[in-house]
Amino acid sequence: xxxxxxxxxxxxxxxxxxxxxxxxxxxxxxxxxxxxxxxxxxxxxxxxxxxxxxxxxxxxxxxxxxxxxxxxxxxxxxxxxxxxxxxxxxxxxxxxxxxxxxxxxxxxxxxxxxxxxxxxxxxxxxxxxxxxxxxxxxxxxxxxxxxxxxxxxxxxxxxxxxxxxxxxxxxxxxxxxxxxxxxxxxxxxxxxxxxxxxxxxxxxxxxxxxxxxxxxxxxxxxxxxxxxxxxxxxxxxxxxxxxxxxxxxxxxxxxxxxxxxxxxxxxxxxxxxxxxxxxxxxxxxxxxxxxxxxxxxxxxxxxxxxxx
Amino acid sequence: xxxxxxxxxxxxxxxxxxxxxxxxxxxxxxxxxxxxxxxxxxxxxxxxxxxxxxxxxxxxxxxxxxxxxxxxxxxxxxxxxxxxxxxxxxxxxxxxxxxxxxxxxxxxxxxxxxxxxxxxxxxxxxxxxxxxxxxxxxxxxxxxxxxxxxxxxxxxxxxxxxxxxxxxxxxxxxxxxxxxxxxxxxxxxxxxxxxxxxxxxxxxxxxxxxxxxxxxxxxxxxxxxxxxxxxxxxxxxxxxxxxxxxxxxxxxxxxxxxxxxxxxxxxxxxxxxxxxxxxxxxxxxxxxxxxxxxxxxxxxxxxxxxxxxxxxxxxxxxxxxxxxxxxxxxxxxxxxxxxxxxxxxxxxxxxxxxxxx
Lengths: 308, 357
Description:
- Chain A is mostly helical.
- Chain A has helices at 2-44, 61-69, 71-102, 109-121, 125-135, 142-148, 163-173, 176-187, 191-199, 204-232, 236-242, 255-265, 269-297, 301-307; strands spanning 47-48, 56-57.
- Chain A has 14 helices and 2 strands.
- In chain A, helix 12 (255-265) packs antiparallel against helix 13 (269-297).
- Chain A is globular.
- In chain B, a hairpin with a 4-residue loop joins strand 4 (93-102) and strand 5.
- The longest helix of chain B has 32 residues, at 149-180.
- Chain B is elongated.
- The two termini of chain B are 41 Å apart.
């Protein structure tokens, strides 16, 4: 009896040992490349640090300066939120609509899916350069196309009123990434639910409202959180489109771009670190807000089953 | 209502589709197809513009950015000068005449190239300019050799594949650890791992840069390569979700045969996880190929640049040469597109087994 017990102890110990051993690459990486840098970054955020000299402790000066006397901080926050307010709902609704359309039994559905998904796999510098040219009033295609409809196109990327909407439009071209996740969610809705609704006499719109929508709220929630986080990381597109300036007239000075400028252009590592921590707090609070609100509007099938 | 008489189409997808479908569903599907078609114009047109622009020269582009096929005025040599040709109808007969001089009030002097001495004064707008297709394939070699793109491509492939090996190696170990072993705190650690997906990279970026600077790694590939060998949350999660679906009985069978945990990973789990490994490799390729931020901050000298950085800098240098920029950009997006078409199924599957829903 005791031998058996000791043996089973050692087996579970052995199992635990191997478990820890196999995850050790991540644990080491987490300590060296995440926890360590995060602590250092937190420390830097209270210092004046330009990499040449040792960090000089300045207390909460960076944060005070950031929140009270740096107009560009507020500008960059405003630009980012403006983009988020335009791009998140538009992207969410459009990619959801496209996913619903692509979930119908129509001919050549795979061809349609391929077309809509394609732009999202090539996101990067090449695509941004393409859109910069499309918006260009001299060589681009948007200006003459709008002229057909009698619309005089603005110089999108050189106009401080138009650059953010233009970037939103670029982003909408790549909705395929969100769309494919919605599609997976829609395909996970059991067909017998639709059949049951049909038997009860629900029409197309009622089936959407009372079956499709509630059943896909977890996916909408997931996409919303991910989009929210990525909006605050928005960088490559605006860097390439404006040559890293955030122009014209700082109308596209996104938060992450301004942080990059502080760190790698002005060499203000301490100040940039405090920006990073403000960003961290914003992202965490917004994510928590979405999580908290999710109990009101996200429906998890398993949850209900558990209660019932 | 529906019959199967129309033989030529009886096996086409459209035919099969129309059979046995109700009227109002048909209408809904027509509307659906119509909406998808309209939306796809927005998706496809930029690609066409890119392809077409990359084959034009700067004058063709400026004169008509919307022309899909690059054309040029057809020219004729009149007295040592190239003059544009027009189709002119005189007394019901079509003639090819060259415009040699512009006059006032939109008129011009036209001559017959065969006999330049006979001059006609006609309204230019009423004549049709002759255009010939003129495709500038040479844009591609010109764009790709004006800056060392071959070097950039080699660098990008090096970074992409070394990080892919590091990612596969570390992530499969870690995913195996998180899916097949019970140990105190393992679940908590897994939640910590998941939460790092949402962590904004900026809060660790600056000290990492400082650290790599201090040990002399800035402007080498090492800051991009080394972290890849320590697993990342996204790929671990995907692999772990897949490994969870492999029956435990397979592990037990191997264990009874005397396999140790590492052998079980190598000979049971990894071969079974092939679809997941292919999926994360593809996602990784796309990510690494398009990555811009890290190469931007770490790779300073030109000889170390990746395609993303090289292309951005190329754009800054050659801004006015839109045709060359488009040619280089098109080359840059070919590998992801090719990969996408080769492995289309993986993209949809990848999302399904990530357990997002």
